[in-house]
Amino acid sequence: MMQLLAMVFSWAMTGRLDPSERPPPPAVTPLEASAVRRWAGPLGLMLATPPLALLAWMITVHFDGSVTDFARSITWERFVALVPGPSVPAVRVLLGWVLFQGLLLKFLPGESFKGPVTPAGNQPEYKLNGVAAWLVTHLALLVGVRLGVLSPRTLWEHFGSLLVTLNLVALALCVFLYWKGLRYPSTTDAVRTDHRLFDFFQGVELHPTLFGMNVKQLVHCRLSMMGWSALVLLFSAYQAELHGGLSRAMTATASLITLYLFKFFVWEAGYFTSLDIMHDRFGYYLCWGLFTWVPAVYALPALSLVERREDLHPVLAFLIVVGGVVSIWVNYAADAQRQRVRATQGNTTVWGQRPEVLPARYTTADGVERENLLLVSGFWGLARHFHYVPELTLAYLWTAPAGFSRALPWFYAVYLTILLVDRARRDDQRCAKKYGPAWEAYCQRVPWKILPGVW
Ligand code: NDP
Question: Which of 202, 262, 398, 404 has the highest count of CB atoms within 10 angstroms of its CB?
Fold first, then answer.
């Protein structure tokens, strides 16, 4: 009996039935980083982000997105009265969502996809059924709303409470994953440093699994990005219920976010070669961010439009949508270019010509020397992260319908600008370390980080 329990436990934690085959706990390695990166930055972010996420919701819903109104009229008593608590309906919604998305991920048909080789020489596996899951989810939501089983009004009224609940659940999950990473890592990619706070923030495991499921794919793609899409749909449905129809402003914002997220699932395999998945370990930064920051901050432009009566001129709405669709296409095309070139070993065309590539050698922790291709033409010849330009243009465009009279709807776009500028810098450092002279040669050919001619 004890043996059976040990096997089930081992499988649930690491995906291996035989406990003796489990990867060993990670050894402690010294962390060479400044005090800001070691503890001040992580601590500051962990203290600031949960209240910020809640404030964003409070100012949007109770102060019409006006930070000035909030600052002028808030008192401690009013603030305390407005802070929602966790609630049973919120827990029910959350559990239902996790179960529903978990079942779709597990049982909808889809090919399996092997991600890029990790620094320890492992290759994580994913299931490609994102488009089917997106379609089933949105159909189920629409039918549920139509039949009155799902109430967009209830979601609106309990959204603050849902955010608080998500906060607590995400924190508990971060603690659990930290412990699991130290004791029962799923792969040999787990990293433990001599700084606990840093490890908790940054994560220990690169690709944790639970009950045989890839936790990163489940949380990142299916709970978080799918959740963002579902929220925008339900906020739109609530506006239609409230005002008897959708405003042009909401139509423009919601259609762009929805198209962007649909594209995300069409391109899901490509996403497994992005920085979040390939390089960032699954700690507070990713896990809490995906559970709480994404619904609280990424959905703000749509949330701020729900109760608004002022609308956009039809021509302006049309131009915003056209600009947004072009941005989505450029961002997709840039991501697809680099993946296609690598997948075909350069035997493809980029902008109608044979791609220019630089072979870049690197060594994984298991001592094996490998090679990747760095694309030097197409979008990747304009700047080293040119694809962030359309990503940012899109964020500003889908916020524009909220107008310029309130600051808060712009929070996501401004935050994304800071995030992507920092990300371009971090990625450059990581690639320079990984590829050495080949990356230097790429930087000489393509000197701009994001915006050609500027930076
Ligand atoms: P990237 O698409 O920028 O991928 C970076 C990696 O690509 C590098 O680490 C390197 O990985 C490889 N690479 C770099 N240069 C080249 C080259 N010239 N040729 C081939 N491969 C190269 O990752 P991101 O995760 O930043 O972006 C993925 C997508 O997600 C983008 O569309 C981005 O706009 C979007 N995004 C959206 C965010 C949001 O919150 N809305 C946040 C962040 C990103 P390797 O080690 O394999 O060489």
Answer: 398
Compute the average pLDDT of residues 434-455: 94
- High-pLDDT (> 90) share of the chain, %: 88
pLDDT confidence band for 42 (50 / 70 / 90): very high
Scan for tokens 């270019």, then name that residue: 337
Residues whose CB falls within 8 Å of the CB of residue 331, separated by 6 or more in sequence, listed in order: 387, 390, 391, 394
CB count within 10 Å of CB 60 equals 27
Q: Which amino acid would we find at residue 32? A: E
Q: What is the DSSP letter of 95?
A: H
Q: How many CB atoms lie within 10 A of CB 83?
A: 14
Residue 280 to residue 258: CA distance in whole angstroms: 26
What's the 442 CA to ligand 1 centre distance in angstroms? 15
Distance, CA of 234 to CA of 64 (rounded, Å)? 19
Residue type for position 204: V
Distance CA 366, CA 117 (A): 11
Residue 339 to residues 151, 278, 439, Cα–Cα distance (Å): 41, 14, 18
Helix (H) / strand (E) element for 29: namely strand 28-29
At residue 404 the predicted structure's pLDDT band, cuts being 50, 70 and 90, is very high
Cα torsion at 305, 310, 313, 318 (round to 10°)? 10
**Ligand 1 centroid to 351 CA: how many Å?**
20
Angle between helices 314-343 and 388-399 (to 10 degrees): 160
Q: Are 187 and 207 in contact (CB under 8 A)?
A: yes
Instruction: Quote the CA–CA distance of 100 and 146 in Å, as a whole number.
Output: 19
Q: Bridge partners of 213?
A: 210
For the cut 90, the answer to whether the pLDDT of residue 79 exceeds it is: yes
Mutational test site, ligand 1, from 397, 431, 433, 445, max ligand atoms within 8 Å of CB? 431
- Can you tell me which atom of ligand 1 is nearest the CA of 372? 48
Q: What is the rounded distance in angstroms from the CA atom of residue 443 to the CA atom of residue 381?
A: 10
Instruction: Indicate the pTM of the whole model.
Output: 0.94
3-state secondary structure of 126: strand
366: pLDDT strictly greater than 80: no
Q: Which of 34, 9, 35, 36 minimizes the C-alpha distance to 22?
A: 9
Ligand 1: which atom is nearest the Cα of residue 388? 34
d(CA 317, CA 321): 6
User: What's the residue count for the chain?
Assistant: 455
